[in-house]
Structures are given as structure tokens and as C-alpha cells.
Design goal:
The chain has one helix at 38-61, and strands at 20-23, 30-33. The protein is α+β, with helices and mostly antiparallel strands and 62 residues long. Strands 1-2 form a two-stranded antiparallel ribbon. It is flat and about 50 Å long. The two termini are 16 Å apart.
Length: 62
């Protein structure tokens, strides 16, 4: 594996709508209930495209 060519990034998107987190009755593990709105999905897609461009252009400069 070529670590000098590795890139790591993280993208966060703050959503407009709320969801919920509850506990599973048997083992108390967390269960999330959230569906992103159309507005939020568009912003997530924009962020993913921007992250992909960062990866692509950083490879060109290497």
C-alpha cells in the first residue's frame, strides 16, 4: 500500500429537520429515525462532489 498517496477527509452537513434516537427494548442499543429533507440531500450531494474533487485534484498534484 502506498501511504504517501493516501488522503483522508471528513464532510459534515448540518440538517434542518429533526429526527429521533431511541433504545432497542431488548439490548438497549441505539436506534436512529431520521430522513433527510430534499434540501439537506442536495447539500449532502454538493459536499460529496466537492470532496471527490479534492481527492481528484490532490492526486494530480502528487
Amino acid at each position: 500500500m502506498q501511504y504517501r498517496r493516501m488522503m483522508c477527509n471528513i464532510s459534515l452537513c448540518r440538517d434542518r429537520n429533526s429526527g429521533s434516537v431511541s433504545a432497542e427494548p431488548v439490548d438497549r442499543s441505539p436506534v436512529t429515525n431520521h430522513t433527510p429533507s430534499k434540501f439537506d440531500r442536495a447539500h449532502i450531494a454538493t459536499g460529496l462532489v466537492a470532496a471527490a474533487k479534492l481527492c481528484y485534484f490532490s492526486e494530480l498534484g502528487a
